[in-house]
Amino acid sequence: MTNPLVLLVTFALLLSVQAQDIGIDCNSCVQLTSVIQQSLARGASETAIQTTLTQACIQARLLPETVCRDFIYTYGPAQIKAVRRAGSASAAAICGFQNYCPFTFTPAPVVTFPKAKPTHVPRAPVSPYTPKKKIVQISDTHIDTLYVEGSSTVCPRSLTCCHAEYGPGNATLGTAAGYWGSYECDLPIRTLHNALAEIKKQNPDIILVSGDLISGDVFRVHADGVIATNAYLFTALRQVFGPNVRIIPTLGNHDTDPTNFLDLPDNAAWLFNPMAQLFSSLNILSGAPLQSFLKRGFYSVNVEPGLRAIALETVYYSRQNLFLFNNYVDPAGQLAWLVSELQDAEDKGDRVYIIGHIPPGHGDAIPTLGDQLYQIVNRYEDTIVSLFFGHRHVDSFEVFYTQDDQCNKRATAIAYVSPSLITRDFNPTYRVYNYEVDTKYITDSYTYFFNLTEANYNAPAEPVWMLAYSAREAYQLASLSPVDWDKAANKIQFDQETFRLFYDYHQHLVSQPCEGQCKVNTICHIRSGSRTIYDQCVATNATAFHYGHVVPPRRTEPLCTYPPAGTFCSAVALTQTLVNVWPGGSQWNGLLINTGSQTVSLVQIFAADYQYISNLWILAPGSAPGTYVNPSYIPTLAPGQSLQFGYTATSQVAVSFSVTAVTCV
Length: 665
Fold this sequence. Notes:
The protein is an alpha+beta fold. The chain is 32% helix and 19% strand. The chain contains 18 helices and 20 strands. The protein has helices spanning 4-14, 19-22, 26-41, 46-60, 65-85, 91-97, 189-200, 223-241, 269-281, 287-296, 334-348, 367-379, 452-458, 471-475, 482-494, 496-506, 517-527, 531-539; strands at 132-138, 206-209, 246-249, 299-304, 307-311, 351-355, 384-389, 396-401, 411-417, 429-436, 442-449, 466-470, 572-582, 585-594, 600-607, 613-617, 627-628, 636-637, 642-649, 657-664. The strands form four sheets. Strands 3-2-1-10-11-12 form a six-stranded mixed beta sheet. A hairpin with a 5-residue loop joins β10 (429-436) and β11. α1 (4-14) crosses α3 (26-41) and α15 (482-494) packs antiparallel against α17. The protein is globular.
């Protein structure tokens, strides 16, 4: 007789409960998956399996009773259906598809295109005089309607905390949910509305909503909750921003029931039908784009003359979506459709923004699909302006490169990976892009956040939203073309101070160390527009960003040399010391030390939260807000030499200063 506890643990594995919590490895996954397959082969009904699993969960006390029931009720039907559809596939293959065992995906086919690629035309320099418009990207809100201020941030594993059912937290021990949110929990409703009111001040022309609006409480997410949460947010967006702002939505892996599972379009009407009705009622989509979304979950829409937005359904290239096991080369024909849309745009001279949720370089993306998308993006590099994704919650980007030369690559496209609005692990953050009306090129991006710790300390006062950084200013870029982003990637990879600056932004200014393998992985994420390329990059210690679709053996010597020798010389350390603190303010001393072997001039120092500086000495304001180093006095430091500065602040935390530009003397 089948052991029901074994079945339960099997489901826990396959449904993305953290494997380390239950001691799952490849061998145990294969054994447990075999048990499920054998039970199905004996004719056990789905209802009987669900009932057995629920009883086993309760009796074994692996989770609270209500969680057991929610867990099996939520995931049981989809998981049983997916395993049944896998048919005669081996248990090892099923486990491998979901990344618990080695698995070889079908190699990406060579994509065929209707027409040959035109000669590439480099982008013209950005003009400061051409008219600009503004885009706001909102991603990964993970709205929690059950969030309760003061409730406990400690709760059973794999659940969203900060709910009344877990009782009050302990403010002294830091386990009480804050007024504006908690680093342990999803986004409170009040914080969402505060963010929308703040974003309205930006006067955006376009709003990109890149998915994952739903709470991370995956055991309790059901179809009605998915639809209701989407309806709440998109209705709020329309009410706040009015009828004339274009809203471009796409769905994330949490915007499904259950999370990560989305069947092919013929079986996805439960989601696409009500969402299409919602988008129609709010005048978000209409006509052919609405019908395309209704039919298959992805669409193309004319935003303004000469500009299209193409919204992908990226759950259709997620390896967490076991419904794709038998059809992952091009589910729902999305990539073939994308080629058709891009060819039509190229023929008509339109520019395109591509929006999705899961970036193709992420570990959740099926390599076969990511490699095909990479080919498509390179073919239409002069039509695609930029790609916009979310999912990772961090602030990042992905550069695409030509594939015809192992080392001498040219950057062809840039994918922006937006930071999340959710408070879990990070400060709430959103991004603004400026674009040229004529060319549709992105001319700069601006990332905004508020300090959650400080906002909760000052609650119920409104949070103080601040500019974290401008991409062009932070990385000293002439524009935001793919070639410029490749230059930024070089600086981030090879200049330690720039990497530290990038990683602060990457973590939403919640500072964490990142060295060794963490740094290699981080660099490879920004170099990789597909998971195959990411794996190649890691295997070569961030020295190869494309290697013929085959991951080479790990090696310690560089495969290619990046960047040209002598490009970077800076090695400037910056430390701060608290001098005094008082209610509503503080005083700090800063120290800049040249730890390199060459003399350097400090061309620019940037303070992300410069609004808090009330008085500053030694350093002087620069030409742009947040920049410090007066052009009339540019400090020069010999090796080992230091420069001390100081300031007072209207907060009790240090202002985040960073050295963002140096030259070698």
